[in-house]
């Protein structure tokens, strides 16, 4: 028997719960009396938020995103070429949302042709510096400038993360400096370590803070698709219709996507 689809638009990013419903006493061998298993697929629509993670090479962008999405510190990393994607689905105040983290290359030579793509339809930005390397902190204005150059609205949530706090004897950027900079640029600052297992919850909390901001943020974007994912417009009307579909599984949500 064909699967019953409650939502006519299966999407690569949808959560699919498969429930096998079989009749008690049925046997796969007696096909006349058997009630074959029916697979009910429930596709839960969810909002996807694109977050770009930027900062100098070697500050730990890959490790931070890996820690958040994978729950561990990668044993070995190599310089990111272009961009890597990591995703995590979260429940925020009753709504299932997906954070799509774009781990961008810090090295100029690995960024060149990709930069336009990073900045398209961004919902939030994470600036990362290395607390043990002053130059990575001093370069932050360059990264902010790059955001401005690509017309990233000032209303888009931004956070600052000082990484590698586990290397306590080599701290070159103290908390006061970081806080002052963050205040000037109107964003919260977090100091953490992707490496230290004891900081796992803290890394999680940082991204959760962002997720909360995004959930309550004012709608900005038309629906877009990229990398196989579909991102929905976050205007109030849209949110209502997505939430409704998610809660009653009626599936009658207009699917929108575009190429960008
Ligand atoms: N001690 C310590 N080392 C870290 C931490 N995070 C990352 N590293 C190390 O820093 C180096 C660079 O980490 P990556 O995550 O690859 O840095 P990146 O910012 O993604 O670098 P690019 O891809 O070149 O932009 C690696 O050797 C990591 O093991 C941390 O919290 N503490």
Automatic annotation (TrEMBL):
Biased composition (Polar residues): 17-34
Enzyme Commission code(s) on record: 3.6.5.2
Cellular component terms per the entry's GO annotation: Golgi apparatus
Keyword Lipoprotein: yes
Main location (coarse class): membrane
InterPro entries xrefs: P-loop_NTPase, Rab33A/B, Small_GTP-bd, Small_GTPase
Gene Ontology molecular function, alphabetical: G protein activity; GTP binding
Catalytic activity: GTP + H2O = GDP + phosphate + H(+)
Cofactor(s) this protein requires: Mg(2+)
Subcellular locations according to the entry: Endomembrane system
Record's keyword terms, sorted: GTP-binding, Hydrolase, Lipoprotein, Membrane, Methylation, Nucleotide-binding, Prenylation
Pfam family, one: Ras
Region (Disordered): 1-34
Any Gene Ontology biological process: Rab protein signal transduction
Topological type in the membrane: Lipid-anchor
Family: Belongs to the small GTPase superfamily. Rab family.
Protein name, entry field: small monomeric GTPase
Organism (species): Paralvinella palmiformis
């Amino acid at each position: 028997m064909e699967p019953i689809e409650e939502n006519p638009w299966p999407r690569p990013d949808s959560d699919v719960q498969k429930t096998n419903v079989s009749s008690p006493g049925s046997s796969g061998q007696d096909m006349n009396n058997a009630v074959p298993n029916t697979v009910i697929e429930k596709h839960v629509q969810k909002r996807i938020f694109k977050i770009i993670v930027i900062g100098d090479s070697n500050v730990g962008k890959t490790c931070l995103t890996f820690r958040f999405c994978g729950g561990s510190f990668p044993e070995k990393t190599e310089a990111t070429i272009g961009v890597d994607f990591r995703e995590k689905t979260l429940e925020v105040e009753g709504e299932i949302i997906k954070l799509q983290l774009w781990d961008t290359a810090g090295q100029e030579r690995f960024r060149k042709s990709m930069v336009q793509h990073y900045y398209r339809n961004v919902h939030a930005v994470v600036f990362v510096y290395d607390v043990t390397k002053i130059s990575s902190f001093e370069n932050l204005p360059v990264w902010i400038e790059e955001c401005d150059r690509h017309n990233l609205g000032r209303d888009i949530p931004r956070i600052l993360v000082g990484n590698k706090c586990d290397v306590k004897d080599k701290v070159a950027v103290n908390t006061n400096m970081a806080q002052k900079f963050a205040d000037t640029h109107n964003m919260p600052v977090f100091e953490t370590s992707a490496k230290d297992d004891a900081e796992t919850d803290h890394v999680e909390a940082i991204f959760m803070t962002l997720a909360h901001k995004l959930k309550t943020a004012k709608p900005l974007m038309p629906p877009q698709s990229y990398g196989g994912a579909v991102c929905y417009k976050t205007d109030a009307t849209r949110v209502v219709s997505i939430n409704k579909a998610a809660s009653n599984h009626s599936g009658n949500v207009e699917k929108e996507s575009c190429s960008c």
